Automatic annotation (TrEMBL):
Native source species: Rhodococcus tibetensis
UniProt keywords, alphabetically: Cytoplasm
CDD domains tied to this protein: YvcK_like (cd07187)
Subcellular location as annotated: Cytoplasm
Ranges of biased composition (kind: Basic and acidic residues): 332-341
InterPro entries tied to this protein: CofD (IPR002882), CofD-like_dom_sf (IPR038136), Gluconeogen_factor (IPR010119)
Identification of the protein by name: Putative gluconeogenesis factor
Keyword match Cytoplasm: yes
Location of the region described as Disordered in the Swiss-Prot/TrEMBL record: 316-341
Record-linked HAMAP family: Gluconeogen_factor
Role: Required for morphogenesis under gluconeogenic growth conditions.
Signal peptide as annotated in the record: none
Predominant location category: cytoplasm
Length: 341
């Protein structure tokens, strides 16, 4: 963090609604937030535009732009417009306006990053939204439980197929293998003060980032404070039946050598007792401290932006990442939310 800025440069990696939640929190902590977004979606409007125009899937990128858009009333109309989805039964049915704008800007400007920067200017974003890779990717998974013999694995392909499988996902890969990283995303992580990974669909929005070799190498090498935010509950489909600690074991298998400073866990989702002991031990493979805090919207499985921002602010200003063991963070009732709220 430079002397001119009283806030950290934050990079958030993920996709979909999980990344939207992280960005909604991070913008309360900092005026310098960069989103690094997965590009493997093959469903809905994104899948159609990807197949028809050859662009990287724009849906998760559009959601990240909306999460970081300025709150000014004259910008709100644009934010609402890019999020608007056409109805009806015609060719435009189901398409989001923002998806079409990104696809059109990409064709006009010849560069998806330039298209994102142009739309970011329209929305007066302090920061950037970047794809994790400049090319569209596919997810391939080894899944058990789809055959008569539950021990037999079947290979399935596609983000939608992986996210909705009734089987148990064991491992995922990206196609093409070892894809290139977006150079600007790499530079953003190198320059970051804090990097946040998760929450989100574990196999299709979180783990893909560590399967891009240059992104993983940069995440391992960065001196930024690294924060892993766990989901509030297992997701139907790809992580059904997962314990909280299993999320850590699965990520570790896909990202050998990755260390993080903090693992943020909703305190209500893992009550005190044996499960926390197992989770604390699982975090040791990342050399991380587990932070238990109230970070959920009451009665939902959605992260509360203000509560998560408060925790991120505490992790930025302290405690020492070199410490070990778990810690219980102050609740928003005990501490005001982050200064940029």
């Amino acid at each position: 963090m430079t002397e001119e800025h009283a806030y950290p440069a934050v990079v958030a990696l993920g996709g979909g609604h999980g990344l939207f939640a992280t960005l909604s929190a991070a913008r309360r902590l900092s005026r310098d937030v960069t989103a690094v977004v997965t590009v493997a979606d093959d469903g809905g409007s994104s899948g159609r535009l990807r197949a028809e125009l050859g662009v990287i899937p724009p849906g998760d990128l559009r959601m990240a732009l909306a999460a970081l858009a300025a709150d000014d009333p004259d910008v709100q109309d644009w934010t609402d417009t890019i999020q608007h989805r056409f109805g009806g039964i015609g060719a435009l049915a189901g398409h989001s306006v923002g998806n079409l704008m990104l696809a059109g800007l990409t064709e006009v400007l010849g560069d998806p990053v330039a298209a994102l920067d142009e739309l970011a200017r329209l929305l007066r974003i302090n920061g950037r939204v970047l794809p994790m890779s400049p090319i569209a990717l596919d997810i391939e998974a080894d899944v058990q439980g789809l055959e008569a013999d539950p021990r037999v694995s079947r290979c399935i392909r596609g983000q939608v197929a992986v996210a909705t499988t009734p089987g148990k996902v064991r491992r995922v890969r990206l196609l093409p293998a070892n894809p290139p990283a977006c150079p600007d995303a790499v530079r953003a992580i190198e320059a970051a003060d804090m990097v946040v990974l998760g929450p989100g669909s574990w196999f299709s929005s979180v783990i893909p980032h560590v399967l891009v070799p240059e992104l993983l190498d940069t995440l391992i090498a960065t001196v930024a404070r690294k924060v892993l935010v766990l989901n509030l509950a297992p997701e139907p489909g790809e992580t059904a039946g997962f314990s909280t600690e299993r999320h850590l074991h699965v990520l570790s298998r896909h990202a050998p050598g990755l260390a993080v400073d903090f693992v943020v866990v909703d305190s209500a989702s893992v009550p005190p007792g044996r499960e926390r002991e197992h989770l604390d031990r699982a975090a040791e493979q990342f050399r991380a401290r587990v932070v238990y805090a109230d970070v959920s919207e009451h009665g939902t499985h959605t992260h509360h932006a203000g509560k998560l921002a408060s925790v991120l602010e505490q992790l930025w200003s302290g405690p020492d990442p070199g410490s070990r063991g778990s810690v219980v963070a102050e609740t928003p009732e005990e501490r005001e939310s982050a200064s940029w709220q």
